Amino acid sequence: MRYTMEEKLAHLKNAEACIENRRGTYTSYAREHGIARTTFHQWTQLFDSSKPVKDCTQKTSLVNLGRPMMPITEKQKFVVDYYGSRIEVSSTDNLVELLKGIKRASAI
User: Exposed end of the chain (fewer CB within 10 Å): N or C?
Assistant: First the structure.
């Protein structure tokens, strides 16, 4: 399930209240509300008041992987493992399109 920024902040505020009232921990709060422990702890790091808040609404571009050491040829295929699928890429253009597709799919 995807949570909005407002929902995340509300959960964190409620968890803080539970901790202050000695009714539980972040982990117990997350468990009671069906939120994965690791996800909840990521939220606590994301909204840590001692650090500036990250703007999660901005879209980021693809990760800059740099240029291939040598051009990919038909004889040389680049293999990408993505969630158990093996995808062979035979050109840098195909690799770029693949990465763009993975980015679009992960944003849904």
Answer: C
What's the token pair of residue 6?
Answer: 């407002």
CA distance 55 to 33: 25
- Which residue matches tokens 């909204």? 47
Q: How far is CA 14 from CA 11, 56, 72, in A?
A: 5, 21, 53
- Report the distance separating Cα 71 and Cα 64, nearest Å: 17
Q: Which two tokens stand for residue 69?
A: 């050491």
Q: Are 68 and 92 in contact (CB under 8 A)?
A: yes
Residue for token pair 């295929």:
77
Which pLDDT band holds residue 68 (cuts at 50, 70, 90)?
Answer: low
Cα separation, 35 vs 82, whole angstroms: 25
Confidence of residue 32 (pLDDT cuts 50, 70, 90): very high
Q: What is the pLDDT of residue 96?
A: 82
Say which DSSP state 54 is in: P
